[in-house]
Amino acid sequence: MSEKTENSVLSKLASPLIVLATIIWGSSFVVMKNSVNVLPTFWLLAIRFSFAAIVLAVVFWKQWKLLDRGYLIGGTVMGLCLFVAYAFQTFGLEQTTSGKNAFFTAVYCVIVPFLYWAIARRRPDRYNVLAAFLCIAGIALVSVTGENATAFNMGDILTLIGGFFFACHIVAVAKYSEGRDIFLLTTLQFASFAVFSWIGALFASPAPDPAVFDGSLIFGLAYLVIFASCGALLFQNIGQKYTAPATAAVLLSLEAPFGVFFSILFADERPTPLMFVGFALIFIAVVCSETKFSFLRKKG
Hints:
This protein has about 300 residues and is an all-alpha fold.
């Protein structure tokens, strides 16, 4: 397949792949919650992304001929942003519910315009400001849950920090994917992510007991490697490269409601009415920030 044909095919499949990625991520919050209860955070991330990098390196071995300094820099920056994001998200997951973790992570969609303002000097418009206030209101409502009526718990704060670095990752992908092969760039992203994770694992966490690697944990790790990493993250990078930013951001925001759906379905989570209102406000904030409600205005 020629490069032109490949780009055409990927462009047509970009939106469906992003939606599939959000479904996979939504289900992975439950898997991550179970795995993080057994493995230390850095060990979980190190194992997950080491195998993910190996899988992509083997599958896309022909792309290695393109490797140069630009790829190494891009892959390292993307991997570092993603590593910090996942670390905070995973530490946050240890102290909050999988549904709340999914929704707080989705805040990155609202942060992106302001991050672009800081980097590219493009000021956000009134819709971006409105989205920020809606998002803050939604976060406040989500945090007030029946038995836990505090404004925030530490898990929520850590997840929000992770959301900021997910926004940094989106900016990095947009910057470094232009004119480069997305498959090689994603492979290098996973490899650098794994290196940072192993550093964290060796210095911050004791090695896990080999006895914890039972059938259930191995299955969970395999799901995270093949589907949530090699699949979903690669789909995201393809989507960002071949889909308009506003469309991609709205599609990526579907991760949050899918996360809650799977938490209710498999993790016996029971959101309160206030949480549902908060979730709705956060989702509206994402749509407002990225579409400016253009679909509500008459064409003419």
